[in-house]
Amino acid sequence: MPPRVVVTGCGVVCPTALGVEEFARALREGREGARPISLFDTTGFAHSHGCEVTGFDPRRWLRELPSDRVGRASQFAAAAGRMAVEDAGLDLDALRALRGVVAVGTTDGGSHELDQAVEMEIARGPSGMDPALVRRIPAGALSVSVARELRLSRVDAVTLGTACAAGNYAIGAGLDALRSGEVDFALCGGADALCRRNFTGFYRLGLVAPRHCQPFDANRRGILTGEGAAVLVLETAESAARRGARVHAEVLGLGLSCDARHPIAPDEEGIARCMRLALKDAGITPGMVDAISAHGTGTRANDVTESRAIHEVFGPRPPRTIGLKAMLGHTMGAATALGAVACALAISRGFLPPTINHVETDPECALDCVPNRAVPADVRIMQNNGLAFGGNNAVVIFGRHAPDAPPAAG
Amino acid sequence: MDVSAAREPLVVSAWSAVSPFGIGRDAFAAGVRSGAGTARRVAESHGEVPHDHACLVPDFDVRAVLGRKGTRSMDRVSGLAVATARELLAGVGDLGDPTRTGVVLGTSGTAQQMRDFTRDSLLGSRPFHVNPAIVPNGVMNHAASQIAIWHDLRGPNATVATGRTSGLSALAYARGLLRSGRARRVLVGAAEEYSATRAWLEHHRTSERLALGEGCALFLLESGSAARDGARRPLLEVLAVESQVALGDDVGPALRQCLVDALDRAAVRPEEIGVVRHSAAPGDLGRQEVEAVRSLVGAEALTRAPDVACLGETSSVVAAFQLAALLSVAPTRGGVGDVAAITSVTDEGTVACGLFRLVRDRD
């Protein structure tokens, strides 16, 4: 039997909260992160709300990493990594002697900085771009920045560019590395910074909502682009028990699939297959899942296709299915990592975050999305869906950790 | 989890490349063995570039190579990746259940189309007067997903972006997929495109005057038994893939530690390494890389595999080209250790290495 893997630390930088405790409060309150975008000039767009991270001073969180030498997404990732190891109560000197993986998923990497370089190119010509700015662009820096902030050298630092499912890919990479025994710990998550290119792309495709994101609502208008980061500390249950760590949740299983159909449109078969793979990997049946954190972008294509796939796998009465993007916007590479933290908090603290901005459920979706208000709930097993452009699907299942019981009974 | 698969050796049983030497494995192998330079004057259609020479895949026009169907808006790096997958798959026979074949690609996508898109938004009469057809091209996972769509590969599909170490990062990730039983075989490798935007970004990022290269190399990675089932001969066994982070400015000590840990994991002694293909990194980075390798395995091993510098600075694809270079020469017999290594370093601080056992004919 491979070792069981648990979450012992969470770090969060998101539009509604900095830090896991504030994130838990924001989820319970149904706090909404939408506001007019300030990070780039939105002149000429008919509407330009987004979910920006506000009040983030990197110097408050970063001790080792020179924040002026890395991009905005790297700052988010490194800050979330610092928060996560503190939440886990890890001794960094001990950690530095161990083998680890640092996996950070992203959609846009350093595109926030690339956009600025393009502006500079327009103003001064290509030879006039600022080298210091250009050096902040490469996506590889997202994972390396976490390692450098924590002064971890013997880690495999990998940036996964699997777009909007990338956080789950990163958690999956950590899960598999721990199960195989190749590493002793994993810092996994996702990060992205809001940028013009991303916003303009979704806007041009007609997928950006004017003011609010309303997953599964009959009158939904699309996504709001967002930004942030989340990092989770994963270790084996044995390691957590040995150091007396508090466990947020157990990682029960992972599913990965590719639609291989369309560059943008999601595909029911590929999504359903991914969920079935995750359930099989977790060793559980669909009836054992208490709740789902949906990909739930608030677009017509996503919500209907994802709902159909959920019904296909879970039958006519699927588990309650929440859409966090109503509160957080679509934080891209951070989205499934933030979803993972929300799952862990739902399990450990006994509540389900709401799907806010909800007026009327789309009959084509037919899900109980926990409208508008958080509810107390005995969540023993929760599924975290991630679906990306390119048909890159990744689903992770979390469960309450009961050290002496088999994982499926947890 | 398939425990038996976890213990089985993982092998490369096929490979191909699209490179400045042309399309296909044979062109690559003959080219790197010859060591002929591939830098040519950059066509004027690229506009203003910082360095007038580069190593491009000759005559690589996406629509000419892949046909006109489904290629109208395809970006260059996706075209290179899809073409390489086509070359590889043409030689391997039926791979069976498409949901059991994964794709792992090291790439940072197309800087050119990302730049063009933002530029159009900034300069157009309306900020949303942009080409909607290229929106997906600007996402890093587009090339890997195009391989999946074109060749109906529905297993796990992943993109890794770690700069010059991307090929090794992809290999490590692919190994994880096979070990955990999430795929039975994986197309794994890396891709990079030449463009004026990439040339300018590289120009500002480093102080070196670089002739940039481009291309893609892909490998079929599977267990020994999966290769046997498909009647494919193992070409090379993957013994270890290791990656670490340099915390200071000198990557040498971290690379040395990385090699030591890889040797330890694979239970291989330094003297068993007969061949090392380093990444020919530019400037100080390269000197630190070579010195770290030399201090551990001696100088001679460094001379026994074809140099990849003849392909130019190939950034995200360099580590995959290094592996292809190892596969381009017949393994030597007798006297030399039969373990081969590749090493890689990046400006961002990632260092990586891979240890392989070359499989001889009739081994």
UniProtKB/TrEMBL annotation, chain A:
Domain of life: Bacteria
InterPro entries the UniProt entry points to: Beta-ketoacyl_synthase (IPR000794), Ketoacyl_synth_C (IPR014031), Ketoacyl_synth_N (IPR014030), PKS_Beta-ketoAc_synthase_dom (IPR020841), Thiolase-like (IPR016039)
Record flagged with keyword Cytoplasm: no
UniProt keyword annotations, A-Z: Transferase
Species: Streptoalloteichus tenebrarius (strain ATCC 17920 / DSM 40477 / JCM 4838 / CBS 697.72 / NBRC 16177 / NCIMB 11028 / NRRL B-12390 / A12253. 1 / ISP 5477)
Family, per entry: Belongs to the thiolase-like superfamily. Beta-ketoacyl-ACP synthases family.
Name of the featured protein: 3-oxoacyl-[acyl-carrier-protein] synthase II
CDD domains: KAS_I_II
A Pfam cross-reference name: Ketoacyl-synt_C
Residues annotated as domain Ketosynthase family 3 (KS3): 2-400
SMART domains, per the entry: PKS_KS (SM00825)
Cross-referenced PANTHER family: 3-OXOACYL-[ACYL-CARRIER-PROTEIN] SYNTHASE, MITOCHONDRIAL, POLYKETIDE SYNTHASE-RELATED
Automatic annotation (TrEMBL), chain B:
Beta-ketoacyl synthase-like N-terminal domain span: 8-199
Database matches in Gene3D superfamilies: 3.40.47.10
Keywords assigned by UniProt, alphabetized: Transferase
Protein name, as recorded: 3-oxoacyl-[acyl-carrier-protein] synthase II
Species assigned in the record: Streptoalloteichus tenebrarius (strain ATCC 17920 / DSM 40477 / JCM 4838 / CBS 697.72 / NBRC 16177 / NCIMB 11028 / NRRL B-12390 / A12253. 1 / ISP 5477) (Streptomyces tenebrarius)
